[in-house]
């Protein structure tokens, strides 16, 4: 019996227009396609799940499709049918996390000496390219300097700082930003409708927030909750219980209790979340993220400018709520809170009682506000 394809693979982008949240990348590659002016080497950098490898495959199709029109591939030729299924003889993908040694790169270079077998170009995609060994990187550098005319390299990395300058200088670079919760929500709504997953908009937005800018994680979360729920209607309460996260109202109540300097209420709210089996690190991340958003709003004098949605990934309702809270806080206090939260995760990792670290940190927040 053939296994069911995961939703992420089923809805993986195959055209530039399908990419979510990467407008600059899409516009530049479309222009390159229109002018037929492609580089011999590309470097895609960004966090996990933001579309780097999918874009590498789409670019491979643009380079090899027989009928490209207006930045779109035909979907019918040999290149289109084989690249996205991973069976193309001329488009090879290498995982730099596992095939990272000199022998792996030498084998790739040896195969590069042969002309394309079935497509008009060869494309080599190296994922997690920052994990290649020093010797492998040196071997790769040599062919990047003088590649065969029919060969294009596409390097993908989540850690651009680990890529050596000589590699960077030989590639056309694209930075993939985290995808906003609003953009993720639109895509999830489309998938949910197609898959007949009965989920309301609040639940979709909560999933989008949990994904922290990763489309891959968001689709994975949607698939998980959809499988568990079956035909039942899904709301944000189900998201909170299944993924062990608190509701945004609960997090905001903690923030308000801190601003009101109400220590008993803070401890009471924390206890409710612990009893509901909410992940402690997740709570602390969301609290710190809200304080960061308040800092941005405070720095902007509480004004909702056109630029604010680029700086803060929240719904309009939450922005309005945080603007109200920000009026009771000083910018100097918020800057001190940033230092307070800077090493919370490390403390939790090295302490047997992460709840205690959380409670102590939140009480310390109140101490900062009192000064």
How many domains would you count in the coordinates?
3
- Please name the CATH topology of the largest domain: Rossmann fold
Number of helices: 19
Strand content: 5-15%
Task: Let me know the average pLDDT.
Answer: 90
**Tell me, what is the CATH class of the largest domain?**
Alpha Beta
Distance between the termini: 66 Å
Which residues form runs of ≥5 with pLDDT under 50? none
Q: Largest sheet at a glance? A: 5 strands, parallel
Strand order of the largest sheet: 2-3-4-1-5
What does this structure look like?
The chain starts with 6 loop residues before the first helix and ends with a helix. The chain has helices at residues 7-10, 23-35, 52-64, 78-83, 102-112, 134-145, 165-168, 181-195, 201-210, 215-229, 236-243, 248-259, 263-275, 280-299, 308-311, 316-326, 331-341, 344-349, 354-370, and strands spanning 41-46, 91-95, 122-127, 151-157, 172-176. It is 55% helix and 8% strand. It has a five-stranded parallel sheet with strand order 2-3-4-1-5, covered by helices on one side. It is α/β, with parallel strands linked by helices and 371 residues long. It has three domains: 7-176, P-loop containing nucleotide triphosphate hydrolases (Rossmann fold, 3-Layer(aba) Sandwich); 181-243, Orthogonal Bundle (Helicase, Ruva Protein, domain 3), CATH 1.10.8.60; 248-370, Up-down Bundle (Zinc Finger, Delta Prime, domain 3), CATH 1.20.272.10. The relative contact order is 0.09. The protein has 19 helices and five strands. The model has no long low-confidence stretch (mean pLDDT 90).
